[in-house]
Design goal:
alpha+beta; elongated; 5-stranded mixed sheet
Amino acid sequence: MTQPTLRSDSFVLYKNRPARVISVSDKKIDIQTETGETLSLRPKDVTLLHPGPLRNLHDLKPPKGEITSAWELLTGTTTTLPELAELAYDAYTPSTAWGVWQLVTEGLYFSGAPDALVAHTPETVAAIRAQREAKATEERSWQAFLTRVQAGQFAPEDERYFGDVVALALAQREQSRVLRTLGREQTPQNAHALLLATGYWPPTVNPYPQRMGVTTPQPDAELPPLPDEARRDLTHLTALAIDDEGSKDPDDAISWDNGHLWVHIADVAALVPPASPADEEARARGANLYLPEGTIHMLPAAATAALGLGLNDISPALSFGLEFNAAGEIGAVEIVPSWVRVTRLSYAEADARIEETPFQTLYELAQASTARRRANGAVELELPEVKILVEDNTVVIRPLPPLRSRALVREAMLMTGEAIARYALAQNIAVPFSVQEIAEDAQGVIATTLAEMFALRRRFRPGQSKTTPGAHAGLGLNAYVQVTSPLRRYTDLLIHQQLRAHLRGEPTLDLQTVMERIAVASDSMRLIRQTERISNTHWKLVYLLQHPNWHGEGIVIDKSGSRSQVLIPELDLETDIYGRSELALDSVVKLALSEVNLATLEARFRAES
């Protein structure tokens, strides 16, 4: 079809809106838009709807026509705009041309260009209608959802809309349509706040493991059976696994045998050799993730079931026998795969028997070890500790008293770590040494008050794992390794793998390989510790939400102008209070809970007179 010539007063489309041609030249046309604006354009920039004359765009008032009848006659065929105007309106005028084009733009019955309009089939019309109705229904649903959200509510059908909010709260995506529509900054904290405000998430949802990127499914790598190998029978020794009440992964026990301290450790490397699937997964995880709501393990549950000390009548262990000289210093160390018969006790149960044999002997040995480390510059901090548990979504916070049994076990593990560090150096075995530096003016300092202890702790530098030995200044040890928790910590397992290979006369991993494995595990372990700290804070605030009338005491541990940093011992929680400049360091202040913002991990307290 030949395109009619443009002339003055022709009716055209410009950007799909009506316009009138004012004048025509060789290469340009001037048009007037419906807003009265005059534009100079190329002819190809417009589409002719009617040759005119059209002298006023306000005259475009399509008459009532037989649109449906025209469609029924033309269905499934192709026509032109003039033909459709004649059929639907009995005339082809600027007004009927505009009516037809509006019909085409609406898109239900017709589509295409002025010289090739397609009349949709009934099936196509039905499909378009269904699609449009679904879209309208969805828009109504979306608006109803937004209304509920702004009212702090949600309904079961809102589940699909909250998906991107949850993903943002877990830092799995950076944007949320919901928050954008509500005009809120798209941050994980704001997403979390919205989920809490609507009740979609209860306060007991802990988003931090996933937000921090920690692996949360339990490991499931297969383990081989325990190797058939020679083990020394130490079942005649009284082996005591002393741990927190409710502990489910006991991996160390202690014995006293005629001047020898035996520390028995779960023989994890017997089932998890280097480069095995379980080893690689444990290395990627770095350590157990201990959360108040449960533990995410670095090793499959089968490892604990087979190797946990005291979980079976007789347990396989890697036992470390420590000798002491006349001065009470560690002498020779013997390392043997063993069988042990373990009795499990809680710290409270062991503390109640501290004056019995062998507890008293072990405690005296621990006291001597502590004194020796202090003489070597160890810094001892007795800071409040709590145990946080979640029982049926109720948070329970229990203080951990500084029991003598805790000191007994801690010193036994430290002596073992010191002895194995020396052994690895003497035998030229590559292992991760635990090293910590401390400011020179803090070495050997004895802090007696809580404020002094916190000030001293700030002088510590983070501990590191290195393949070259160095002092652990905080512990007062010249060489030290962590070796007593291979079920819980990968670097401990790595040392066990090295020791087992050495004892069997097999090649140990070289220094470069050990360094590479330390690097991978250390990064994961740092993330684990950060996740534990932030998760514990989350649950402490949930506890406060469950106790909105909380009152208690805090101790001032730092001051800056009108700000007092206060530690609440019963919660092991730090907070700031303002406007009490008269408060001195270590003074006790009565506190009442004012506000909890769970999404930002903030709790505010007011000082009571």
